Amino acid sequence: MIPSQPLPYQDCWATPEDYVDNLLQFVTTSDTFQILCGGVHVLDFFTSEPGLFSTVVPGEWQPWLLQSDPMRLLDILMREDLDSLQDPQPPESLAKYIKDIRRFSLSREFPLREEKLPKLTWQMSVGMKPKKVHEVRNFANYVDQLASDIEENFDNNITHFVDFGSGQNYLGRALASAPYNKQFVAVEGRGHNIAGAKELDVIARVAEKPKIMRNKKLWMQQLDSMTPEDQRDERALKRAAQAIKTSEKYAADLRPRNEHDAIYTPEEGKGFIRYIEGRLESGDLTDVTDQLSSTHLGSTVAPTDLRLMAVSIHSCGNLSHHGIRSLIVNPAVQAIAIVGCCYNLLTEKLGPPTYKHPYMRPSLQALNGRVVRESAKHDPHGFPLSDRLCTYRDDGIRLNITARMMACQAPYNWTEAESDGFFTRHFFRAVLQKIFLDRGVISKVYHDGTRAEDRTESSSPSPFNVSTNPVILGSLSKSCYKSLHAYVRGAITKLTASSNSREQRDIIKERLSVITDEEIARYERQYGPRKRELSAIWTLMAFSAVVVESLIVTDRWLFLKQHSDVVQDCWVETVFDYRQSPRNLVVVGVKKQGP
To answer: Out of the domains of life, which is the source (predicted)?
Structure first.
């Protein structure tokens, strides 16, 4: 069923245009939103005084936030009716900000209907976690219904479904099986994923395992030939002689069984899977369509009559953009249904955020060389996709990696134990960054690249124009998170053993190996009482970033909308239960039919 409105915006907006106009104005004019979504990072929480919380959070918000229990704060931000809250009520300006975030966030409600969906057999579910089972069941059914709706409403019959970045091909396996029986093309860049998918196909009975005629006696002869002569016994020699007499009866197949390919037999009325190894570097599917043939697909459809729907569950970063573009640039692609994720992996079309803007922090670009390279590329396939966002107020709308990373959070799903866990991890890492700074392992750097100590002109450092050099740490063992002492010791051990930079490793070893337990304890006494500040800001950042995801998805819809010469209809709707799969918004586009 095609939704009645193209975007799942809140009821307070009269039209899509009304929502988009106000959304773009909000994200480009709200100082608080820009600070919380890209302006600061918790890594620098304690590296300046009076500290990030006191600097970036409005003064009238601070007492109320600090007295709010973390889980209670989550409920107030996301669920409760602000107009009926009991004392203490949030400050009026905070209440307004909360309402703004809520009204600009796309609705994520999803009607549960799994009892009506075809169940996956246990063979089909092998390798799937409950989250994946939920996604595959719902999306397979959604895609099947979407194809039927497209045929009924747009007189366009989809012949094949294409998933690029198919991984283990859970979706394709479900769609190629009963009751859907679709013709499916799985495009995957990693050969080992295709091999694993084919093994699962055999288990799920959508492919057969080859039957191998193995001459056991000749096989034993082969084994005996690999045994030193003085170690062979008389029975081995008899086996070899007998094998020679019978070797002409059968062709011996001595390959390991796992090297054999699965056998796919096309049958009328049943689904079929075709694997293509390759990577999608743009929306152009020419290489894919060139490799397709009616023989390979078990279909009577001629290659020139292919009518494809590009589908994907959680295409990472730019892969979602490639899928969306495929509707525009490929004549064979008639429709798309793309669920994106990993917004932190998006490249940037307009280049890195301009640092003339007071709240656009370069964030953690130095953490990852890829991020620096991608940001500088002005990648035509990056964010934003639509002309509307690219040209908005002349400079366009940019999102730095900090904002996009926060958009990957799922604050509505946070539990008390999970929240306390990552609040603690962020707190330990922020204190460690302060230790790095105090010990001279890192330095403060202005956003134009100059170090604070090398700065000649007068300029007041602030969280908006100065940050510290990041140090790549990665994850530590669970035991390291039991206390700040264990965390600091574990971090030093790891960094001095495995740092990518020998110079950095030597500096850390020289300046941190002598830190005493008492010094670590002093940091804990000094900053421990301020952990609540960090958890409050992190919660506000994750809550605000729901609008960042809404902006990214809206941009994708606007891109399809601007190509009205090619696209007949496009919309966004939910396809998963947020509690099980928070990246639950699918972008759909349907191509216009020729005269």
So the answer is: Eukaryota
Count of beta carbons in the 10 Å neighbourhood of residue 131: 12
Scanning 155-251, the segments in alpha helix (DSSP H) are 170-176, 191-204, 216-225, 234-246
| pTM for this prediction | 0.88
Of the candidates 25, 33, 133, the one whose C-alpha atom is nearest the C-alpha of residue 360 is: 33
Distance CA 339, CA 320 (A): 7
Tokens of 573: 């709707």
**What is the rounded CA–CA span in Å between residue 143 and residue 160?**
12
Number of domains in the chain: 1
Rounded Cα–Cα distance for residues 326 and 343 (Å):
19
Which residues are within 8 A (CB) of 205 and not within 5 positions of it... i.e. 6 or more apart?
123
- To which H or E segment does residue 400 belong? none
Residue 243 falls inside a structural domain = yes
Does residue 234 form part of some domain?
A: yes
132-164 CB burial, b ≥16 within 10 A, e <16:
bbbbbbbbbbbbbebbeebeeebebebbbbbbb
DSSP element (H, E) containing 365: none
151 three-state secondary structure: helix
Confirm whether 242 is domain-assigned: yes
List the beta bridge partners of residue 468: 444
Taking only the tens of pLDDT, the chain with its 595 residues reads 788 899 999 999 999 999 999 999 999 999 999 999 988 888 889 998 888 999 999 999 999 999 999 999 999 999 999 999 888 899 999 999 999 999 999 999 998 776 789 999 999 999 999 999 999 999 999 999 999 999 999 999 999 999 989 999 999 999 999 999 999 999 998 999 999 999 999 999 999 988 766 566 666 666 667 666 665 555 555 555 555 454 444 444 444 444 457 898 888 889 999 999 988 888 888 888 888 764 555 555 666 688 999 999 999 999 999 999 999 999 999 999 999 999 999 999 987 655 445 555 554 443 333 344 444 458 889 999 999 999 999 999 999 888 999 999 999 999 999 999 989 999 999 999 999 999 999 888 766 566 666 655 555 666 666 788 888 888 899 999 999 999 999 999 999 887 667 888 888 889 998 999 999 999 999 999 999 999 999 999 999 999 999 999 999 999 999 999 999 999 999 999 999 999 999 999 999 987 6
| Cβ-defined contacts of 68-73 (< 8 Å, 24+) | 68/536, 70/416, 70/419, 70/420, 70/423, 70/532, 70/535, 70/536, 70/539, 71/416, 71/419, 73/536, 73/539
269 secondary structure, DSSP code: T
In a domain, 518, yes or no: no
